[in-house]
Design brief:
Radius of gyration: 16 Å
Largest sheet: 6 strands, parallel
Number of strands: 6
Strand content: 15-25%
Helix content: 25-40%
Structural class: alpha/beta
Strand order of the largest sheet: 2-1-3-4-5-6
Shape: globular
């Protein structure tokens, strides 16, 4: 999805329970387009081929690299970003930690899955310290896969490389509690606005 006046292109991976055409992926792409951020969506092989379970990290990270390479080929003049929702984001950070993704200037992670549902642990974040480009994490305050009491210290220890933006009352799929949510801004619009502001403030 390439809006008029696009300045950046985000290579966007899907979660374990979705595919690139899932409603939440579409909403993320549309909201980013409103902020002149293009998106390149792709399927991991397990979804493309209709298999159960998820791909191995080796296959998934190779898929991330292939998607980044194709996005860069299609839009060489746009500043390249990479990331994704949940599994897609974690495999993108894993790939970047192993070897920098070619041409990628920063990472945008939607609902980073720090641990299994309701089983707080921070070992999945160990590899993040190997990443030396800016990272933006957009996490809901009710995300059962990301205990913010564990994640905030992780972000702090990463220093200037990482930024955490919390989405009030949102869960892992960005469903919100409308009665208690302080803001009436659409959650996807908030994430897109935050991403654009972060890009600008970090001069990416």
């Amino acid at each position: 999805m390439r809006p008029a006046g696009a300045t950046h292109l985000l290579v966007l991976g899907h979660g374990a329970g979705a595919d690139m055409r899932h409603a939440s992926m579409q909403k993320i792409a549309e909201a980013l387009a409103e902020r002149q951020i293009a998106t390149f969506r792709y399927n991991f092989p397990f979804k493309e081929n209709g298999r159960g379970g998820v791909d191995s990290p080796k296959v998934a990270t190779a898929t991330v690299r292939a998607a980044v390479a194709e996005a860069g080929r299609l839009e060489p003049k746009l500043t390249l970003l990479a990331g994704g929702h949940s599994f897609g984001g974690r495999m993108t950070t894993t790939a970047q930690s192993q070897e920098p993704l070619d041409g990628v200037k920063a990472l945008v992670l939607f609902s980073f899955p720090l641990h299994a549902p309701n089983r707080p642990d921070d070992t999945r974040a160990t590899h993040l310290s190997s990443i030396k480009i800016p990272m933006l994490f957009l996490s809901g305050t009710r995300d059962a896969l990301n205990d913010l009491d564990l994640f905030r210290p992780v972000i702090q220890n990463l220093g200037g490389h990482a930024t955490l933006h919390t989405i009030d009352t949102a869960d892992h799929s960005y469903k919100v509690l409308k009665r208690t949510r302080a803001s009436d801004e659409d959650v996807f619009a908030e994430m897109a606005r935050t991403t654009r502001d972060w890009i600008t403030s970090n001069k990416i």
